[in-house]
Amino acid sequence: xxxxxxxxxxxxxxxxxxxxxxxxxxxxxxxxxxxxxxxxxxxxxxxxxxxxxxxxxxxxxxxxxxxxxxxxxxxxxxxxxxxxxxxxxxxxxxxxxxxxxxxxxxxxxxxxxxxxxxxxxxxxxxxxxxxxxxxxxxxxxxxxxxxxxxxxxxxxxxxxxxxxxxxxxxxxxxxxxxxxxxxxxxxxxxxxxxxxxxxxxxxxxxxxxxxxxxxxxxxxxxxxxx
Length: 226
Prior knowledge:
9 helices
């Protein structure tokens, strides 16, 4: 299936897929690859062709209030098929963040049972259906944008709950990302049970191996908490 790099509409890919004979095209995205604490969450979403949501966009480009509104609109619509999967900090440390992200994406896709998948970013191994990766897909494709909303809201809610369980770290504010406030709390309190031991600087407390291929540094991640 030929997909343009710069679609004129967020909904163009879905219509092209339908014209190619696909009936359930799922968009997949994740939230939480970069944080020092908490899980990685993936969502898969298949939207009905006639559904257009005002304000739908990449979750990083909309306010928390708009994300909550879109999350409610998506999950309340019986015609929207979606799956959400969570892979926790322990598994991330065991298999590495890339494998954990793929694991979450595969699990989310299995819930939706799509016949074609559009994935944000790079190709994902082992998906249950034929797939196509789209760079910056959450800004180009409605179903990927919807998946980014569901994954982000679900993970943010988990981190707010963790903030209650482990006070003092500020999880409700930074959602586990490597902000200066988080690092300051980490140095003062030490790691809590949901910190990722294979991520520096958490690994410094345990002298555990660090995931060598992480493309994240604290300064880059500060903007991902909103």
